Amino acid sequence: MVIDTKGGIGKSLQLKHYKHTKPRLTLSTWFPFLTSFIGPDYLDEVTVDNRVQMFGNHLEGVPAFAQEFKGDAKTTEMFRNTVFSASQDHVVLEEGRLNTTLTLTSPIVNGLQMVKIFEANPDSYLLNYRIQLINRSNDVRPLEVLYFFGEQRLADNGGGMQQVSHEGPVFFFDESLQTESTENIENELPVTQMKWLGVEDQYFIGAAVPMTPVKNGF
């Protein structure tokens, strides 16, 4: 995953997709300890072409992990253009180790300071994402921060929309799983008091779980 310190937004999220080939049997097939001498009996090949890009069809004009201040376009634009300082330049996940954390801290912008915390679990695809907004001014300021989560529909080669087993919003509401089709909604889907929400296709589901109560979601 690539995070841009300008605005603290996500630029790229790629999952590894391995190409397995097994051209012939070797002694390492039956005697694994020989692998270090003669190589494996198969080949794992990772290229740019066979990686899965998870941010490929994110909402147009709304970068991943972006936020907006409702009714305050000036502050929104200032935070989009500010450069956050990162706790680390590179974060490497290692199997069997504890979760790894990356922290982005903004300078004081219009009296406010923002801290974004990303925590990745090496044993799953879960990414914990938290935001702290600190008022560094002496003024009391009522703020409503909006976070965006969703994706655009992808067009197929014929100009139509891709048809899959289920494509569109999914959310947990009233102790049950709810789904909607992208064909039945236009741009926004209002959801109230949900425990989590996401979007899915036949291969993947991306979901966000709020850590604080949510009155309304779209």
Lay out the secondary structure.
Layout: E1 2-4, E2 9-12, E3 14-15, E4 19-21, H1 27-30, H2 35-38, E5 43-45, E6 52-53, E7 67-69, H3 73-81, E8 85-86, E9 100-105, E10 112-120, E11 127-135, E12 145-147, E13 168-173, E14 176-179, E15 191-192, E16 196-200, E17 205-208, E18 216-217
Antiparallel strand pairs: 1-2, 3-6, 4-5, 7-12, 8-9, 9-10, 10-11, 13-14, 13-16, 15-18, 16-17
Overview of the molecule:
The chain has three helices and 18 strands. The chain is mostly beta strands. The protein folds into two domains: 1-16 and 47-148, no CATH class; 160-218, no CATH class. The strands form seven sheets. A four-stranded antiparallel beta sheet has the order 8-9-10-11, with no helix packed on it. Strands 14-13-16-17 form a four-stranded antiparallel beta sheet, with no helix packed on it. It starts with a strand and ends with a strand. Residues 153-164 have low confidence and may be disordered.
Ranges where pLDDT stays below 50 over 5 or more residues in a row are 153-164
Shape: globular
Judged by helices, strands and strand pairing, the structural class is mainly beta
Structural domain tally: 2
Write down how many β-strands occur, each being a DSSP E stretch of 2 or more residues.
Answer: 18
Report the sheet with the most strands, covering strand number, pairing sense and barrel closure.
4 strands, antiparallel
Radius of gyration: 22 Å
- Helical amount: under 10%
* Total helical segments: 3
